[in-house]
Amino acid sequence: MKKFLNSVDTLLDESLRGFAQAHSDIVQFNPQPRFIKRKNPGKAGKVAVISGGGSGHEPLHSGFVGLGMLDAACPGQIFTSPTPDQMLAAAQAVENGGGVLFVVKNYAGDVMNFEIASEMLDCPNSSLLINDDVSLPATHSTGRRGTAGTTVVERIVGAAAENGADLAACKALGERVAHSTASMGVALTSCTVPALGKPTFTLAEDEIEIGVGIHGEAGRERAALTSATEIVERLATTIDDELKPGQNQPVLLHVNGLGATPPIELYLIYDLAYRFWKDRGVAITRSLVGNYTTSLDMAGCSITLTLLDEELIRLWDAPVHTAALRWGC
Amino acid sequence: MKKFLNSVDTLLDESLRGFAQAHSDIVQFNPQPRFIKRKNPGKAGKVAVISGGGSGHEPLHSGFVGLGMLDAACPGQIFTSPTPDQMLAAAQAVENGGGVLFVVKNYAGDVMNFEIASEMLDCPNSSLLINDDVSLPATHSTGRRGTAGTTVVERIVGAAAENGADLAACKALGERVAHSTASMGVALTSCTVPALGKPTFTLAEDEIEIGVGIHGEAGRERAALTSATEIVERLATTIDDELKPGQNQPVLLHVNGLGATPPIELYLIYDLAYRFWKDRGVAITRSLVGNYTTSLDMAGCSITLTLLDEELIRLWDAPVHTAALRWGC
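Above: the input entities. Below: the structure tokens describing the complete assembly.
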């Protein structure tokens, strides 16, 4: 394993301390229990939008804390759910009179721990579940995984909360965006979890994992390495079959890097995905390309499509000021 | 070689087309000869700031085209200088009555080709040379290489040009920033150039390359993989010896990822570098952490320090609207 590291035990805290220092105009780090919160809270009565999950997916979620997106993020150890006490402490720190909405990617540990935190807060039904990964069937036993579509939901719900939408409206909006969003990924290589010290899985030099999860979970199939065009066709067709965007449907196209894939390849993927949907008459109205939901040092990418309307476009474009997304302010 | 690719011959144009489409609110792509230019030119009489170099370092330079930074960027093939006709065409497209300043990283091909373009434009001395890499001695036969400090120079000079500084002032400012900036990098792995199809160099599992260049050039020494703290001490000490920041000297600290190193490690490096200089009484006043000057899929990072003053801080903070850097607008 070749990584910048002092020790596996201290990596997360050292890194979070560095993150908070580098972005001290935007965030604050609470070390015990661990959470990152906005430095400048929103208006009184604002819904507090909180997310969290295992670390190793940065900038998700800590890099999305700030005006117009998250009020707090709870980082677990790498690829490990945060604990309910983190979520509870974060909620108590940022609750501002408008209630709390937890944005939860669909993994068993995250779902359970956010549920416990909801009970401790005496706020049932305060979770918004993200399950955008269409590589698995909707009928899969544990449901679909939450992946790069999370960024889109957190941005749009965060904008609504900043604009004063109440808890029920934020949750309903989040569910609408989540249902309008589909993602699918592909890995060229595994990632290496520091505590494990070796790659999570092995791919031959001519193999790729289609439908890979953001922790290296097996996907739809292991396939031969083929052209970028064929890979994009595979991912985009699955997404298109799910969302069925009509002629002139405005969409957001998000090409997400999983960590080790350079921009020159991500923009190639974007170009191919753009043309895939343009050829079908879909209106690619907003775009996001880069490393947002990563899987440590995995080489690979995912494609996310979200069906938009005027309201969602307006919320996407609203001011956001976080470490990883920033515009309009 | 595992990359998203259709063919080596088409990669650059497909990727640039995707880049320009994804950021069509900011840039336009001219395919023949290749350059990226600002969609909305600045005020008449503004100095046109133009850069370029081999591709494979994205977001440098195309991702820095836009308000408050570059007017145009000329991308060569991967790790290959752009040609004078690209630079000439870019200059003719964006020259706006204030003259042209070429920002040139110190590599023989880039220097020669920008010089030829200057002669073709009949604008001698229109180049600003960037040679921030202190891994080589200042007396090195071809001079020091231009690396991640380029981002800092392009941002600050771009802000001055946007604010109406004339050509002589922009060039003098750029030279001042360049002389106040020092960088040093370290590689954990090689990168793989698509046209070559295999890693540029080989490092053993327990080896790192200290002082690596952004194309994988050999650096100061090949050393044993050691703790992140020791690696940062090595880089930061060399930079500190060069710039000798005094007590309370305001500085910009830029930790740059070379491509495949995830944020959790980059922020660890930032934390260690921050504490290195804080312990010496230096005032880390501005920070930039992320992949800005990359080397394809190389795992590694560099540290850049720039000595600041009130004028440079004001210019750094001025509005910038590019694909890769955006604030204040």
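Note for the figure: The first strand of chain B starts at residue 27 and ends at 31.
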